[in-house]
Amino acid sequence: MTPSSSALPRSAPSAQGVDAGGVSRLLDAVAAAGIELHSLMVLRHGHVVAEGWWAPYAPDLPHLVYSLSKTFTSAAAGLAIGEGRFALDDRMVDHFPDLVTDATDEKYSRYLVRHALSMASGHEQETLDRAAAAAPAHGGDLLAGFFAIPPDREPGTVFCYNQPTIFGVARLVARTSGEGLLDYLGPRLLGPLGIDEAQWMMIDDVEMGFSGLHVRTESLAKTGQLMLDRGQWGGEQLLDPDWVDVATSVQTPNDTGDRAAGGAEPIDWRQGYGFQYWNSRHGYRGDGAYGQFVLVWPEEDVVVVTTAETVDMAGLLDLLTGHLVPAMAGGGSPQADEVLADRLARLALPLPGDTTAPFARDADILAPALPPGPFTSGGPVPGADRLEVAETATGWSLRLTGADLDVTLPVGRGAWAAGEWPAPAAGLDPVPFRCAGGVGADGTWRAQLRMIQTPHTLEVEVGPRGPARLHWRFPPLRGDGPAGHALPSRP
Fold it and tell me: Mean of the pLDDT values across residues 55-70?
């Protein structure tokens, strides 16, 4: 159990019965698999026994956690239920009568809060795109657009990973409390945990709920420890222990596979779903796209957190479990602890290769189109038609221009340069970047533009001639470019 201090206590691995060599072998395996981690934190008996950030990522930087956001919305629901604001067996439509019409499918009359929390709305496919397409005919309201899509089956009878269900829960907390999620969670959860950096992407005037939260690695670790301790933090009961038990146990079986993915998912995605927590072959977890994990292993009294940029989430989960579970059997030593601590302190992502040759050029931009979606508004950087690479004393400046775009980022040579994408509107923060580049043996200038508070990296290639190439390594789930990732400024 954690002490009352908001910071997690630190300990040498061997002092908590952890073999540091197992963590080192995990690092080797992750590197061999080509999986890009941004951070790793391992807790045993409430103590951080291993932590590391791959530079330029750092402990003080929040990170977009995608669907891990759902676990915070789940906590808000548990708190609101405990305060009597609504109940698990309330009908969702009873709380949103203004969004119901004569055309609303009658199956929604049996759609309960518990179904929304457990991805059991009765739909057999993700509805986000369809809800967004229907929203303009319903006052632009995404939840109203969702209620316009008839469930395929009875609510509660089928699992389908479906974003508008938990967005509805976020709206429900906001409607019954008169506050947004962050304001509601602040005094009840975030403040006691010492989480003061949280920012959340919005849909209209409500936090997305299903995605969009930005928090630090240690903040994620605190939430994992809170769940492991059945809602206790420093002797205070923040969450009802019964809620924790229900939220982290199977509420909807999903062994037929996630229909939204078109077939059977890897086995850790077929162990059942709780209230925004997945059951795993080992313990349970919250997870977010591209490798954002909070793993909770009650049998070992362990929490593991990763932030990352990878599409091999199943592979990462296998490596974490395969190397760290055996490491909890003991067998470590102070010497192995020191070797691991030194390695973790020196973690860094490789910089782009560089021959030190000079490079400067203007070029038109060739960029791929992104698949259409509710948050898509163009290619990797909407409106970017042309770029200019100019040498500076420490590297380069990269200027991207178009009819309604003019942005310049510093690009380091042999180091990561800090820059910002301007906020698109008042009340939003600029989007931080860390950028580095180099000139290859073929004369091509290549740069990585890391949108450092997210998993995502823009890659730029400018050859001696021809158009420049601009693309995301793995595209954000919202395709409106860096400007779309500007966050509401904290008060």
Answer: 98
